[in-house]
Amino acid sequence: MKKLILIFLISLLVLSSCEQKSSDSATSPSNSESKPLVQSVLTKEQRDAMTPDEIIQSLKEGNQRFVSNTLTARDHSEQVRKSALGQFPKAVILSCLDSRVPVEDVFDRGIGDMFVGRVAGNFVNEDLLGSMEFGCKVAGAKVIMILGHEHCGAVKSAIDDVKLGNITAMLSKIKPAIAKVTYNGEKTSKNEEFVHQVCESNVRHAMSEISAKSPILKELIDSGQLRVIGGVYDMDSGKVTFLE
Ligand SMILES: [Zn+2]
Predict the structure, then answer these.
(1) 233 Cα: distance to centroid of ligand 1 (angstroms)
(2) Distance between CA atoms of residues 44 and 55, nearest Å
(3) Domains in the chain, ordered, with CATH?
(4) Residue 171 alpha carbon to ligand 1 centre in Å
(5) How far is ligand 1, taken at its centre, from the CA of residue 42, in Å?
(6) Dist. CA 203 → ligand 1 center (Å)
(7) Strand boundaries in the chain, DSSP class E
(8) pLDDT at residue 215 is higher than 60
């Protein structure tokens, strides 16, 4: 009887160590092909070891993979389980609401990699600055990116002075960026060149608002712990032009 119990215990041990091995490994074979799925999530140690410049470089490389249609294959179920007890994202991305800008895919990032804030027109206000302060000061992210995009409906509507419900007040947040553009041609949404200039101005305006309106983020920037960058997403290619 004792022997039987011993054999049972040993087989249990062997089984549980096998399970441990498979969940600890970073990758596992996907069902459809031999390319392994990424199962690991960013740890505090990995994130803390990265500099803001290295994080920006990783965003650039991720966007290159998106453009070339070679996104990393991820085991999302496993990543969900592994990130359940904590998150250590390396960046905060503020994007427009636009459904054609799938932010995580655009930078080839997975669960737990970055915070994503979205508002039509990618402007900052008190709520978004508070979210960024949480993401950087409390949770430790080292890069903030303002991500605008071509053919932005919010930017075009602000240019055309659209008035409708709560959209009116929302568009007023984009108006300062329009005022900053010196342009001698037609200043309507039909002029693609003007829309592009306002789009870029809107990104740069949001970037400047971060240090102007958040002493907490300014301190992180001044001490080199945080970098703020901008980007404009090209609708035709998926490529992000980085503004630094
Ligand atoms: Zn937009």
Answers:
(1) 10
(2) 14
(3) 42-71+89-243 (3.40.1050.10)
(4) 11
(5) 29
(6) 11
(7) 27-29, 36-38, 91-95, 114-118, 143-149, 227-233, 240-243
(8) yes
d(CA 97, CA 148) in angstroms, rounded, equals: 10
**d(CA 243, ligand 1 centre) in Å:** 17
Cα of 199 vs centre of ligand 1, distance in Å, is: 9
Q: Checking DSSP bridges between strand 27-29 and strand 36-38, what pairing results, if any?
A: antiparallel
Q: What is the distance in A from the centroid of ligand 1 to the CA of 225?
A: 29
144's tokens: 């903030």
- pLDDT range class, residue 9, cuts 50, 70, 90: very low
Cα 220 to ligand 1 centre (Å)? 28
Q: Which pLDDT band, with edges at 50, 70 and 90, does 161 fall under?
A: very high
What is the reported pLDDT for 69? 95
Q: Is the pLDDT of residue 65 over 90?
A: yes
User: How much distance in Å is there from the Cα of 92 to the middle of ligand 1?
Assistant: 18
The pTM for the full model equals 0.85
Q: What is the pLDDT of residue 85?
A: 86
Residues in Cβ contact with 218 at an 8 Å cutoff, skipping those fewer than 6 apart: 210, 211, 212
The average pLDDT across 91-118 equals 97
Give the total residue count for the chain: 244
